[in-house]
Design brief:
alpha/beta, eight-stranded mixed sheet, 11 helices, globular, single chain
């Protein structure tokens, strides 16, 4: 049976990483908002990675390897191996406290460069607002406080679709059809890490959005404009990595540039999940941005 770390060598080959595989372990932290699980890469983390809605910590594997920095990659509350919230509230400001608690516990409270994609990027902003002492830089991957529901309709439609599947292959086919990912081993590994097989052989997502409580919409929040003040007053360096085939249209990027004139904005030829589609290029950008 393949365990979660058994696929790391394949990921390394995909990104042409030829060095020794770093020490990687899973850790859990009890937070006031429930148990949060994380991957710890090396010792004394310098960079903390926060994934997007309906993903998990392993989405960053192919980016962390070529970055070659000690890091944390969290399963956000309600995702991966982390506990689900009874209130089904996964708004960035709600889950930011749990993220901060993990950094306190696993990085000894050392200020981190927070790298967040989609929902993870918005959560990184929320952490910066609540615990600025934990943040020395922000890398936002294809997300802005100005993003609108219609900008991310692909993923919203995917999350609102079928909840129980016949196989992992079926999920991969649906992800390709929705334009979320391209076919290949990387997608197959992503589906493996993001699902579990039930006793009857059916497959379900690990994340809470795949099993919403009765009456819940099964969707992530649609408005994040309350995070603009955090970005506008940020005293740390900010990098926006915009995916050319992602979810940020030109007018949203223009608003970002106007509200955060000191931020650096870089376009990359990628789909929304840049960390999976262009991991080496993303790692290079993070490495250039991140002071040692």
């Amino acid at each position: 049976m393949v365990d979660e770390f058994g696929l790391l060598a394949e990921t390394a080959r995909d990104v042409c990483f030829t060095g020794l595989l770093p020490r990687l372990r899973r850790a859990e932290v009890a937070t006031p908002d429930g148990r949060v699980s994380a991957l710890v890469w090396g010792e004394a983390p310098e960079v903390t990675f926060l994934h997007g809605a309906a993903l998990n910590a392993h989405t960053w594997d192919a980016t962390v390897l070529p970055l070659q920095r000690p890091a944390l990659a969290l399963d956000l509350p309600g995702h991966g191996d982390s506990a689900w919230r009874d209130d089904f509230d996964y708004a960035p400001r709600t889950i930011a406290a749990a993220v901060a608690a993990v950094i306190d516990a696993l990085a000894a409270g050392r200020p981190q460069v927070l790298v967040g994609q989609s929902l993870g990027g918005l959560t990184a902003l929320a952490v910066a607002g609540q615990r600025p002492d934990l943040v020395r830089g922000l890398v936002l991957v294809d997300v802005s406080p100005g993003i609108r529901a219609q900008d991310a309709q692909q993923v919203r439609s995917f999350l609102a679709g079928e909840l129980v599947f016949e196989s992992r292959a079926q999920i991969a086919e649906l992800a390709i059809a929705a334009g979320i990912a391209g076919p290949g081993p990387s997608l197959d590994r992503g589906v493996f890490h993001n699902t579990r097989v039930r006793e009857d052989g059916s497959v379900v997502f690990k994340h809470h959005f795949g099993s919403p409580p009765p009456g819940a919409a099964g969707q992530v929040p649609a408005d994040y404009t309350d995070l603009w003040p955090v970005l506008e007053t940020a005293e740390v360096p900010v990098l926006l990595v915009r995916a050319a085939s992602g979810y940020l249209p030109a007018d949203v990027v223009a608003e970002f540039a106007a509200r955060a004139p000191r931020a650096r904005i870089v376009d990359i030829d990628s789909r929304h999940n840049v960390q999976e589609h262009r991991p080496a290029e993303l790692a290079a950008l993070i490495g250039q941005f991140t002071p040692r």
